[in-house]
């Protein structure tokens, strides 16, 4: 009977028998080889982690900015579609204008021009995670933004969108004009503080 061979012409275990004391050392890894592999892997992971962290922070900042941008688009479209004033404000409880922007925000139809009591709630946005920040800085002292049926807004201002992660902080601005135009500013945002 003929011995089974590999395509190179010899069987894999030629010259090695179970009784040979070098059998295990020829098929396993030594402690030094495993240690060397772990050291090299640790160095590579240490070099890659800051890059990976920056990528994750940038992606989260993009998602949060787009979330706020889509809120503004939604409110503006509803104002035009309903031919009514739509209000966007921060909301801690999801019902009233209160708290901070980090705790969530609401969009509602404002049926009264003097108060927010007679309102139709359109959308409630949940609170942000622990290291995400959102603030509104308007040119008036109002802590809310109203969108009108012609597409314009009640005031100029900007939303500061910020993500903190370890030692990295990234900030973008969503700048809003009274005419209803929005622009994302990445260059001038870095000197802004967000806490």
From TrEMBL:
Its main location: membrane. The chain crosses the membrane at residues 34-63. Gene3D superfamilies: minor pseudopilin epsh domain (3.55.40.10). The keyword Cell membrane applies. Residues 65-180 form the General secretion pathway GspH domain. Pfam families: GspH. The keyword Nucleotide-binding does not apply. One of its GO terms (biological process) is protein secretion by the type II secretion system. It is a single-pass membrane protein. GO terms for cellular component: plasma membrane; type II protein secretion system complex. Keywords: Cell inner membrane, Cell membrane, Membrane, Methylation, Transmembrane, Transmembrane helix. It is found in: Cell inner membrane. Belongs to the GSP H family. This is Type II secretion system protein H.
